[in-house]
Amino acid sequence: MFRGPYLHNWAYKHPDKFVGKRVVVIGIGNSGADVAVEISRVAEQLEKPTLAFIGFLQPVEATIPTSELQSRWTVRVFKGLCKARVAHRVQYISYMDEIATELGVKPNLLSLFLWDTKLAMEVFFGPCTPYQYCLQGPGKWAGAQQAILTQRDRILKPLRTFPQYSMGYICHCTGSSPLVALGFIEEVLA
């Protein structure tokens, strides 16, 4: 566990207090990159490259899951287990699958089908979510299986928050005909 000082980028003013120190900058986007570049000029230089810009490429879809998988991949690059590369604009699913394959975390559907048929069906036919990259390998998460199996319920839950009223109930409450009730519904939904 890290025991040294840490700060948010809003508290960062100048790189002087980082002269000769080992520094880790964690951030997504321009502010993280700006701070990392400034501090890299004065911080202790290590033998291996230790500067990575996570989330700087432009995924066509989700940035946060892409950045999470990039972070796991970057740790392996720093350890010398993967090769560094540069990407600019990428397709979300193919890029995630490419990194996941290199990390050894892309699920094998055949073995998944033999291990847990219901889970395999959800991964194959369900939405592509980053949970599937947490089922095995480095960064494995014990809750990934349950998260995948319950993701549809969590997606649909916000759509079930409004009570379902029948036309008869609305007519009774408003004391009006069905046409007036429809006008009431349109007004409420507008």
From TrEMBL:
**Pfam families attached to this UniProt entry:** FMO-like
Task: Cite the entry's keywords alphabetically.
Answer: FAD, Flavoprotein, Monooxygenase, Oxidoreductase
Which EC class, in a word? oxidoreductase
Q: Which cofactor does it need?
A: FAD
**What is this protein identified as?**
Flavin-containing monooxygenase
Q: Which SUPFAM superfamilies match?
A: FAD/NAD(P)-binding domain (SSF51905)
Q: What is its EC number?
A: 1.-.-.-
One example GO MF annotation? NADP binding
Q: Which organism is it from?
A: Tupaia chinensis (Chinese tree shrew)
The similarity annotation says:
Belongs to the FMO family.
